[in-house]
Amino acid sequence: MDYRILGKTGLSVSALGFGAAPLGGPYGPITQADATRTVRLALDLGVNFFDTSPWYQASEDVLGEALVGVARESYVLCTKLGRYPSAERPSGEFDFSAARVHQSIDNSLRRLKTDQLDIALCHDIEFADNFQQVIDETLPALRECVAAGKVRFVGVSGLPLAIYPRVLDQTPLDVILSYCHTSLNDDSLWDLIPYLEEKSVGVIGASPLAMGLLSDTGPQPWHPAPEALRLACLEALAWCKAHGVSLAEQAVAWTLQNAPVATVLVGMSSEAQVRQNVATVGTSPDPEAIKAIQEILAPVHRLTWPSGNVTL
């Protein structure tokens, strides 16, 4: 496993990070025993970065239980706040108030069975009813958690890349988490890297499969991508199947090799997925396959979709 330093945090993180959202069961039920075996295998194979969120249903509880007995200093734990499951709103409840920050951090500590979080991120901040609240209220409350010893480093996450300069031009951050912009179909994050380096921000990349667009089964019906992008990814998948290669494996390998980030998060919920993804670290994607996939995706390169309430 390769390790890299996450910005100014000094944290040494595995090139492949464990995205724990699937442990919450959104893609199908998973037993605690299976989850624990999956997490322990990842640790054994060198993965030391684990990302979760209250939004990911039971993920924090399941991950916390899976890590019982593991030396705390042997892994880096990242969770989020501000977005929560809601029976009334399928897209979740968004609450970036200071009071909810403190409540959420305490709940996460309890679920994850730890007394300190390495990283806490404001989750999908483009959905905040008042974007300025994140800067003026949420982050100051999160820094109070740092002062109290409950959190080590703070940051934000979201889809639109414009949210990051909007925050960083007003207040410093330790870390950002960007998703769906370090993938074969969309490498837009590259353009922001010089700015982020200037601000000494550690960068976490997530979803090299673009939330399933580049999976071996194609995108889910709920995927918000424009139809042209969905169709292009399905065409790339068809090419891969016809030539006996895995689109998902090529996509993950390409991102791990090329993305200018400290760690790449990949969602995992089985030992087979862990073995498959760890095997891609340090290996090169197939040049012929990548060339063909990129040619198919060229007309929709960097095409994204709207997210949130903020006009950026």
Map the helices and strands.
Blueprint: E1 3-5, E2 12-14, E3 16-19, H1 32-44, E4 49-51, H2 59-66, E5 76-81, E6 83-84, E7 93-94, H3 98-111, E8 117-122, H4 131-147, E9 151-158, H5 163-168, E10 175-179, H6 193-198, E11 202-206, H7 227-242, H8 247-258, E12 263-267, H9 271-280, H10 287-297
Helix pairs in contact: 1-2, 1-9, 3-4, 7-10
Task: Provide a quick synopsis of the model.
The chain has 312 residues and is of the alpha/beta class. 36% of the residues lie in helices and 17% in strands.
Rg, please?
18 Å
Structural category is alpha/beta
Q: State the strand order across the main sheet.
A: 3-4-5-8-9-10-11-12
Estimate nothing, just give the exact number of structural domains: 1
Number of helices: 10
Number of strands: 12
Looking at CATH, which topology would you report? Answer: TIM Barrel
Query: From the coordinates shown, what is the CATH architecture?
Result: Alpha-Beta Barrel
Oligomer state of the chains in this structure = single chain
Order of helices and strands: EEEHEHEEEHEHEHEHEHHEHH
The percent range for strand residues is 15-25%
State the end-to-end CA separation: 38 Å
Morphology call = globular
Find the CATH superfamily. NADP-dependent oxidoreductase domain
Taking all residues together, what is the mean pLDDT?
A: 96
Instruction: Provide the helix percentage.
Output: 25-40%
Q: Which CATH class is shown?
A: Alpha Beta
Poorly predicted runs are none
Main β sheet profile: 8 strands, parallel, barrel
